[in-house]
Amino acid sequence: MADLSFVRKDIIPERAAPLSETGVIGWFRKNMFSDIPNTILTIIVAYFIISVLGNILPWVFSPTWNSGSLTECRGILAELGRSGHGGGGACWGVIRERWLQLLFGFYPSELYWRPILAFILLGLALAPVLFDKASRKLLYLTAIYPFLCFWLIWGGSIWFPITVFSGFIVSYLGYVYVNKIFGSLAGVIASIALPIIWWLFITSPLSTLLQSIIPLGSESIDSDRLGGFMLAVLIGVTGIALSLPIGILLALGRQSNLPILKAVCVCFIEFIRGVPLITLLFVASTLLNIFLPPGSNFDLILRVMIMVTLFAAAYMAEVVRGG
Amino acid sequence: MTAIPDPSKQGFKFSQLLYDTRYRSMTIQIVSLIAILLFFGWLISNTAANLATLGKPIQFKFLGEPSNYDINQRLLDYTSRDTHLRAGLMGLINTLVLALMGCVTATILGVAIGVLRLSKNWLVARVMTLYIELFRNIPVLLWIIIVFSIMIETMPRPNQFRSGEAAMKLFDSVAITNRGVYIPEPLFNGGLGDIFLLGESSLRFGVSLDLIAILIVLFVGLFISKKIKTNADFIQNETGVRPTTWWKRLSIVILPIVITLWALGFHLGYPELKGFNFKGGIYLRNSLIALWIALSLYTAAFIAENVRSGIQAVAKGQSEAAYALGISPGRTMSLIILPQALRIIIPPVISQFLNLTKNSSLAIAVGYMDLTGTLMGITLNQTGRELETVLMGMAIYLIISLAISTVMNWYNNSVKLVER
């Protein structure tokens, strides 16, 4: 009797997956049309995208780049027969004409190289902080960058930032020498007290004196001429850089076992987090002059920077505490 | 006897204050306390000296003087002859109204977008990601101004309704114009009227008795409905069969309200075009609408991220276990995933609500008269009392923030996982 059992002797070769499951079609089936609700959702969203783009794109792509005025721009659009809500198209002429002002505010145009140089140096100064591969020597640039940036953007006598910077050198020298003679604690106290005395009483007369001996400096620019994107980056970078250390200190204070320090930190953080930034800016513009000694008047941008830094520091403190 | 000598018997040395760990923390604290007190003393003495020079001692008499300015969007009665205090109150109420409206819509939108971002549908997930990134990365002030200018530029003028170029929406009940949105107002024929509290003082306000009656009926209905649910739970635990209750619960809430509304003669007052503008109905100014939309969309993007992270934080094994037990996807979501996700979602959402309330102070950019616009804006400019107004404004914002965070923490505690 013949053996009737069917036993396959050889393995069937692998076949490609069906066309509907692979490639573009398969991907679409799997990710967009897997079942009926999914298909409905896809169709609704696709319709939404098309209708939004259909309204926005014609408005964005309007040939008004070279128009010199609003009337001229409207004229170009009317010639094309485009009208409707909002004039039927964007008037880009204003951007072409004013983009330098949007970037720099009312900064004198012949001195634009100064903020540009400051921002290029900002990239160099940040490099050793952000990337391990960058040369360590750039750290020296990072250390002097804040003063350099101040001098580049505001101008004026070069001696002022230099004397302010030498406050840190005074602090270091004070620590080294007092530490040798009176011990480490006195060294720490000296490293804090000496630069404060330096900044409060010596900086301003010394820089005036040096300026009168060796007049070195560049054209000084008033704060109210700064503006635009430059100002945003300036305040932003200052706020980020300064709020991190203050925030870490506040977070440590909030976690510490010392009840008075802890209470102070908690009050500060909760107060700043409880009020809107705009009220703090109101304080900067109206109240700071009342809180400070009579006759003292310091720069509006500096006031705003202080407030933004304090505001960011309170939030940073909570982030640090959470982490 | 112990060999360690008691240090207190050896006399107290001054250097112990710094080098002895038992006293060092106390020293640091006292030194810092003195430094802080000195700092505040310095600030206060400066302030006193400055105020004396300016001839403006701190006093709040200006709050009782007539304000002489109008507030265009308000809930209570107010004229320019009212006091600065009442103007501030109007601003406060406007802030609260905006914050409440924004929080409600931002939550709804945020939850929907957060869930949709996790959708398996590629297109939907990508669109939601785009939305979130777009709104999180552009400052809210710009969004407010963008929405405001879109409202002004693209919505029809009231006179276009007359010429037939534009039409009212939703069965002629809602008119969207570039000045704002007019919606129908609830009116009562046989209404109970209002009661006026606090007489003629600056803080007077009227409360509609009709509203109170409806709220009472609503809460009684909800209470009975809750009782029915407890009863049904009890029966289910005893017998294993859950009685059908949804129609009972629905009708016990809705029927009494319908009856109350009918008894009070409820009807809607539609806005109508009269002269150059719409009359009647509730008028929501374009500034309010722009703020509402912008703040909702902006905050919704953040809430969506909180919701997504909360849902993703619930271990996948939980839902797989639920499917293994044969629980349907909908019930898995509502009974297993959401209760666990809520614990993670609520705390960051609280801080988003706080952010929204604080961001509402940007209303000043589009001329919505909130607390910043009245008390810290026009009142400050008219009276020159910057110290008093700004401090009052900050104190009020602080109180609002603390109140919201207290209420939400209380809610958070009620849904928190009870660990045994």
What is the structure about, briefly put?
The complex is a heterodimer of chains A (323) and B (420). In chain A, 70% of the residues lie in helices and 1% in strands.
Describe the structure.
The complex is a heterodimer of chains A (323) and B (420). Chain A has 323 residues and is mainly α. Among the domains of chain A are: 19-99, no CATH class; 227-323, Orthogonal Bundle (MetI-like fold), CATH 1.10.3720.10. Helix content of chain A is 70%, strand content 1%. Chain A has helices spanning 23-31, 36-60, 70-79, 93-104, 113-130, 138-154, 159-182, 184-213, 228-255, 259-274, 277-291, 300-322; strands at 156-157, 217-218. Chain A has a two-stranded antiparallel sheet with strand order 1-2. Chain A is extended and about 110 Å long. The termini of chain A are far apart. The mean pLDDT of chain A is 81. In chain B, the strands form four sheets. A three-stranded antiparallel sheet of chain B has the order 1-2-9. The two termini of chain B are 46 Å apart. Chain B is mainly α. In chain B, a hairpin with a 2-residue loop joins strand 1 (175-177) and strand 2. Chain A binds chain B through residues 31-32, 34, 38, 41-42, 45-46, 48-49, 85-86, 185, 257-261, 264, 270-271, 273-279, 282-283, 286-287, 289-294, and chain B through 18, 25, 28-30, 32-33, 36, 43, 46-47, 49-51, 53, 119-124, 127, 150, 153-155, 354, 358-359, 361-362, 364, 372, 376, 380, 386-387, 390, 393-394, 397-398, 401-402.
